[in-house]
Amino acid sequence: MGDAWVGPEATSAPPPTRSVGRMSLQQELGALAVDIALEAGALARRRRDEGVSITASKSALADIVTEADREVENLIRERIAAARPGDGFLGEESAAESGTTGITWVVDPIDGTVNYAYGIPSYAVSIAAVSGDPDPRAWQALAGVVHAPALGELFHVVRGEGAWLGGRRLKVNAELNPAGSLLATGFGYDPATHAAQLELLGRVMPLARDIRRIGAASLDLAYVAAGRLDGYFERGLHPWDHAAGVLLVEEAGGVAVGEPGSAPTREMAIVGGAELVERLSAIVFDDSTRNDAAPSGEG
């Protein structure tokens, strides 16, 4: 796919390192996530360069799985098991596995599989370590990585230590822009949900400067954290789509919600600065105009 593109905010500086003997659990998890994501990203990109084989569809014909998805997830799972054999695992392409340590790894091996299959470089490896039950409403995310190997970017985060792109600390756009907010969203693969999703988009448009449809939720979230997007909303996300990205947004000073009073779930995810999220939530959850659609998910 040629040389990696490096955006204007990117930096080649490596993630911060510390003496292993002085690492907290969260720092240890974050360092491990970075190491594994770099290896997994290199494998994903290598397989993309070799050519992609579509092996199956999931919930809908457009919701595809490639051989690389499964191979990359297996690599991640094996590396985690070798380093921390008691931890649990929740991945997109394989069965969930409970652990004994209270830590679960939530993994999307290739987020943006359709982009990946078509040769569009907007895909990412997303890895998060969480404590508590593997449910976004109950867990506490401790560390995470969103790595876009074809773009040469690695977003990383440890709870309490900020969100980073290489050596640059990230910050969400907290102020509302008079010209409107640059928003991102996505659409599920089930055609039966599209009418309701388009209707919601129409109601949100008065807040928007413009809309982006990147096709990889983890990158949407990382871009909100980096200030490249003002906000993001989508129905139908799975836990592995947003586990790392939500922590990036929160540690960059942003807010992430689902249904009112809830963390992001399959029903809805809305992220951005606090004021924008409040305005988006008022539109999304306006019962007088809502047209509910079952969550359908985005690969």
Please describe the structure with a list of short key phrases separated by commas or semicolons:
about 300 residues; alpha+beta; Fructose-1,6-Bisphosphatase, Chain A, domain 1; D-Maltodextrin-Binding Protein, domain 2; 2 domains; 7-stranded mixed β-sheet; 5-stranded mixed β-sheet; 7 helices; 14 strands; about 30% helix; disordered N terminus
Structure notes:
This protein is α+β, with helices and mostly antiparallel strands and 299 residues long. The chain has two domains: 20-169, Fructose-1,6-Bisphosphatase, Chain A, domain 1 (2-Layer Sandwich), CATH 3.30.540.10; 181-284, D-Maltodextrin-Binding Protein, domain 2. The protein contains seven helices and 14 strands. The protein has helices at 25-50, 67-83, 113-118, 194-204, 217-225, 239-251, 274-284, and strands at residues 54-57, 64-66, 88-91, 103-111, 124-131, 140-148, 153-158, 163-165, 168-169, 181-184, 208-212, 231-234, 255-257, 269-272. It has a seven-stranded mixed β-sheet, with helices on both faces. It has a five-stranded mixed β-sheet with strand order 11-10-12-14-13, with helices on both faces. A two-stranded antiparallel sheet has the order 1-2. A hairpin with a 4-residue loop joins strand 6 and strand 7 (153-158). Helix 1 packs antiparallel against helix 2 (67-83) and helix 5 runs parallel beside helix 6. The longest helix is centred in the N-terminal third of the chain and has 26 residues, at 25-50. The radius of gyration is 18 Å and the shape is globular. The chain starts with 24 loop residues before the first helix and ends in a 15-residue tail after the last helix.
